[in-house]
Amino acid sequence: MNTTITNDDALVLYGQQFSSRLLLGTSRYPSPSTLKAAVQRAQPAMVTASLRRQGSNPAESGQGFWELLRDLGVPVLPNTANCHSVQEAITTAQMAREVFDTPWIKLEVIGDDYTLQPDTLNLVQAAEKLVRDGFYVLPYCTEDLVLCQRLVDVGCQAIMPWAAPIGTGRGPMNPYALQVLRERINVPMLIDAGLGLPSHACQVMEWGFDGVLLNTAVALAQNPVAMAGAFADAVQAGRTARHAGAMQPQQAAQPSTPLLGTPFWHHAPA
Predict the structure, then answer these.
(1) Secondary-structure class of domain 8-242 per CATH
(2) I need a surface site. Which of 23, 148, 206, 232 has the fewest CB within 10 A?
(3) Out of 62-76, 134-148, 171-185, which region has the weakest mean confidence (pLDDT)?
(4) What is the distance between the alpha carbons of residues 108 and 86, in angstroms, rounded to a whole number?
(5) Of 248 and 18, which is predicted with more confidence?
(6) Rounded distance, CA 158 to CA 126, Å?
(7) Residue tagged active-site, from 41, 106, 200, 239
(8) 36 is annotated as an active-site residue
(9) Is pTM, for the whole model, over 0.70?
(10) Start-end of H helices in 6-119
């Protein structure tokens, strides 16, 4: 399968071009070697990493893990995972900027520990402060149209709505809201969280979303490397289908090979 992306169709975030529309998380893989192989197979635009969550798994902590991230040769997108307040998220983002030497930040402000739903009341405030501080903010949010517009209003040049709660793998839970969001918001949008199957990724790309961010669906697959490749192919297939222009659904059957005249088996023998 040819997945070459031309410059005319590159993913553009904050003025920077990326050759892939897939972003990949780095947690919960069986081993560092599996993570490395999955990244090499998927060729993501960026890989995410959290200062706060590294350490729960020995393979995901310490100097060896940071060296692995550098060796991957893929831009790192730090995140503020597990932050519950504006100040906590800002402090974590500032630390991540120093550690990774990057202005990029995936902003998470969690409002509910059970569903890991974003704190929509404080997310906009945190985003506004980080944008003013020079960060390239990619906020993790719900599919709420008003929330997403507020994030754009305070300077976010891209947003990352969820498809379903983090780690559930349930796929797009509210297709109507996501499609309305795509129609109304005019900045790049990447689906973040809740995708479990490559078909889910293909679907949201067909709807016009600009990319996806994955972690659990790849890391917990029986074969994470193969699944990383499947998602990469699905993202590109969905993007290609979006540009190809799908046929409109029809109410009645239509023969793919129209018949003209009398079928040959109805002709009288000579």
Answers:
(1) alpha beta
(2) 206
(3) 62-76
(4) 10
(5) 18
(6) 15
(7) 106
(8) no
(9) yes
(10) 32-42, 62-72, 86-100
